[in-house]
Specification:
Elements: E1 6-11, E2 17-21, H1 26-35, E3 39-46, H2 52-63, E4 67-70, E5 76-79, E6 87-88, H3 91-95, H4 101-110, E7 112-116, H5 129-137, E8 141-145, E9 148-152, E10 160-162, H6 168-178, E11 184-188, H7 194-205, E12 209-211, E13 217-221, E14 226-232, H8 237-249, E15 253-257, H9 265-274, E16 277-280, E17 284-288, E18 298-300, H10 312-319, E19 325-329, H11 340-345, E20 350-353, E21 357-361, E22 370-372, H12 376-388, E23 392-396, H13 399-402, H14 408-414, E24 418-423, H15 429-432
Parallel strand pairs: 2-15, 3-14, 6-7, 10-11, 18-19, 22-23
Antiparallel strand pairs: 1-23, 1-24, 3-5, 4-5, 7-9, 8-9, 11-13, 12-13, 15-17, 16-17, 19-21, 20-21
Helix pairs in contact: 1-2, 1-7, 4-6, 5-6, 6-7, 8-10, 8-12, 10-12
The protein binds ligand EPZ.
Length: 435
């Protein structure tokens, strides 16, 4: 069934208890899969989450004449030795943001790329100017025709690329284009997100020479060829954060397993500031609430190691529970507070100022309502709100949530959540406009 035709039905008010295992990072896996295009040989990639963005990407990679597919629960094999085309176009390419990585990978491997302008969740303009600026510095020319980006280079030669804005996508894309280029490429003001480091580790394990990933300056010395091998994707920082916030929001006690606690520091610090209990272990964090009230706090999203924009909606939901007024400032995306109306429909009292700051009046109890997932992380936020709310919430537009959360309901159910998925028939009038 198409997930457009399904809804989640959640009976709120049950504190989450138990242990949950976090899947591989969606945003790392999507980049690693596309990076396999640069490799002559078989790449065996472990810890890949079964989410719709991954299935879409596998389909696109196969359409290039490569072999790709799941060979185990979380293992994907990709072999692009006999890649046949530099053209990646079609509905799947236009749907996901990670298809921007085909630009760098195809350019690096074949010297040219024709890729539909990438899609992704809609929270304002999602430009690719920095990607193209980076390719140009390496000697490539590009134009955009009928929504397709055409990039070509007789020869790619390393140079210094300064990123005017810290961009995960542009940092990874330029890295992909530079791996097989002549000489040294330097990316200055690079993104430091864990998945940028993971992609560099993947490429290095296949024979690339990349240094400095995880710092502001990444240096890539071009190599002649990459060889096949095995790689395991890091745990999903955002899925982990979503469960940590859900545990706190329901007043529960949850051990979030299979994570890298260092990646969670900005969130752990904010939760502790609010009075949430945090116990850190080597590869797990326990989150629990043993106080009657949570304290207010102000949060600002920033590139890593700052508070992640991809946890902004989930955290905003938690702030509705704190005593006093809190603020949330979105510094990465221009229009990522568009879901606030859905929360207010559940009884929250949140106002948005200047488009990028939400002021939350805390201590307003939420009640169940029909609501829409406006994008992937806003969808996760609706689930958390529903788990906190009195009564039943119905969440529509599940296609967004399914893009990035593996076994979301199953994992929540194992923690005690009262949650099911049902057929939508028909969608309530009140939501048609919101959709
Ligand atoms: C990645 O998107 C993630 N997606 C996003 O997660 C995440 O929100 C974002 O990084 C920021 O952390 C994937 O990894 C697939 P950016 P990306 O380039 O790479 C500006 C999720 O929910 N910019 O780091 O597209 C841009 O406008 C998704 O999993 C330019 O100006 O984000 C934004 O303000 C949603 N020019 C800022 O940089 C460019 O050429 C950061 O964007 C590119 C970006």
């Amino acid at each position: 069934m198409n997930t457009n035709d399904e809804k989640m039905v959640i009976l709120g008010g049950v504190p989450l208890h138990g242990e949950v295992k976090i899947s591989g990072a969606k945003n790392s896996a999507v980049a690693v899969l596309v990076a396999s295009i640069l490799v002559k040989g078989k790449c065996v990639i472990e810890n890949v989450p079964r989410v719709s963005d991954i299935y879409d990407l596998i389909g696109i990679i196969k359409s290039l004449g490569c072999e790709a597919g799941f060979v185990g629960d979380d293992v994907v094999e990709v072999d692009c030795t006999n890649i046949k085309t530099h053209v990646a176009t079609g509905a799947a390419v236009r749907k996901i943001r990670a298809s921007s990585y085909f630009m760098g990978a195809l350019l690096g491997r074949l010297g040219r790329a024709s890729v539909d302008l990438p899609g992704g969740c809609d929270f304002g303009v999602r430009p690719i100017d920095l990607h193209l600026k980076g390719f140009k510095a390496l000697g490539a020319e590009s134009d955009i025709e009928y929504g397709v980006v055409n990039i070509r280079a007789d020869r790619l030669t390393g140079d210094t690329v300064y990123m005017d804005v810290v961009s995960v996508g542009a940092t990874i894309d330029v890295m992909l284009a530079a791996v097989l280029a002549d000489g040294m490429t330097v990316i200055d003001s690079a993104a430091k997100e864990p998945h940028v480091v993971d992609v560099a580790n993947f490429l290095n394990s296949m024979g690339a020479n990349i240094r400095g990933a995880g710092t502001d300056v990444i240096k890539i010395r071009g190599v002649k060829e990459l060889h096949g091998g095995m790689f395991s994707v890091i745990p999903d920082q955002i899925e982990a954060g979503t469960f940590m916030i859900a545990a706190a929001a329901t007043g529960g006690d949850v051990v979030v397993n299979n994570i890298i606690p260092k990646h969670m520091e900005s969130l752990s610090a904010k939760l502790e500031e609010m009075g949430v209990g945090i116990d850190e272990y080597d590869e797990a964090i326990r989150v629990y609430v043993d106080k009657p009230e949570l304290r207010r706090c102000n949060v600002k999203t920033q590139p890593y190691p700052g508070f992640p924009t991809d946890l902004q909606p989930q955290m905003l939901v938690l702030l509705t529970k704190a005593k006093g007024n809190s603020t949330m400032t979105e510094n990465v995306w221009e229009n990522r507070l568009q879901y606030v109306g859905e929360l207010n429909r559940m009884g929250a009292s949140i106002t948005v100022e200047g488009g990028d700051m939400a002021i939350v009046e805390g201590g307003t109890p939420l009640t169940g309502a029909p609501v829409c997932a406006k994008d992937l992380r806003a969808g996760a936020a609706m689930v958390i709100a529903a788990l906190m709310a009195r009564g039943v919430t119905e969440i529509y537009n599940l296609k967004y949530i399914d893009r990035g959360y593996e076994d979301f309901e199953k994992k929540l159910k194992s923690l005690g959540a009262q949650i099911t998925r049902r057929c939508v028939n028909p969608m309530p009038e009140v939501l048609k406009a919101a959709k």
